[in-house]
Design brief:
Layout lengths: L1 E5 L3 H12 L3 E5 L11 E2 L3 H5 L4 E4 L4 H9 L13 E4 L5 H12 L4 E4 L2 E2 L1 H6 L3 E6 L2 H6 L1 H7 E8 L3 H29 L4 H10 L5 H12 L8 H17 L5 H15 L10 H9 L8
Parallel strand pairs: 1-2, 1-4, 2-3, 4-5, 5-6, 8-9
Antiparallel strand pairs: 7-8
Helix pairs in contact: 8-11, 8-13, 9-10, 11-12
The structure holds ligand NA7.
Length: 292
Amino acid sequence: MRVAFLGLGIMGRSMAVNLVKAGHEVSAWNRTPGKQVEGARSAATPAEAAREAEVVWMCVSDTKAVEQVLFGPDGVEPSLNQGMVIVDSSTISPSATRQFAERVRTRGVDYVDAPVTGSKIGAENATLIFIVGGDEAVIERLRPLFDAMGKQVFRMGETSKGQAAKLVMNLQIALIYEGFAEALTLATKLGVEAGTLLPLIQASMIRSGVVDYKAPFVLKRDFSPNFPLRLMHKDIHLALDAAREARVKLPGLETVEEVYDLASEEGYQDLDYAATLTLLEKWAGVEVKAGS
Ligand code: NA7
């Protein structure tokens, strides 16, 4: 298929590489020049990338970035053609997604929200899980592209429901990780080493994918970004905004948001979100260690 890929960040670049590997004809664009995808045509603007495309696939930071890529100067809008499909793998606001979809629908263009879970490693290995909102038949047409970049597609309902589901997934990841980080901090303060505690966690009902994934990084004190703190912070804001719009109270997430606010003030934005642990350690005056 002819695909315009817009946004070559940590996730987008690997996704575009996998589309090329699967034999699709890709024209790629990134806001900051210099990021390229071997085998893809480099476009100077989103509009240029989209001109001949059947599918425009976006993976940019946030709601504002999606709006600019679609409707800003040099944005995709003038290149929209009847029958085209826009797919958004960024994690953004569900209500803004509905507005963007309505705007392009007037031009005969379908809109599918397809945020992902699986992190940097999932993007590299083409094992992403797509959390999708949109028309079933349109999603089926996109199947070869989903298959090239991921391992599973879960349809949550019509357009914007993918974003809604993604936000509640990240809500849980943020809360589960914070629970783990608080447990490690208190355990260390009380004299139980992380390396001693972990096998107990893994053997018990507390075991979780989040802990399995993060524990090795935490024990190595490797806080380089698989999923940068600034993006999880953004998703926490998005979830709280969506909750406010829906008049839902989320006290746990509100507290975690404060931890992220302080972590950002400490300058941790570009570290992995696992670095919130270091804030807890600082407050407690301990450092979590794997142990002997
Ligand atoms: P990264 O690695 O921070 O990449 C973000 C990308 O978004 C990168 O290509 C940016 O371009 C691009 N970006 C940011 N702001 C804009 C604006 N205003 N216009 C156009 N492009 C922009 O994030 P990830 O790849 O890890 O994640 C991407 C999304 O997936 C995000 O929503 C996550 O929550 C999930 P740059 O190179 O900075 O010019």
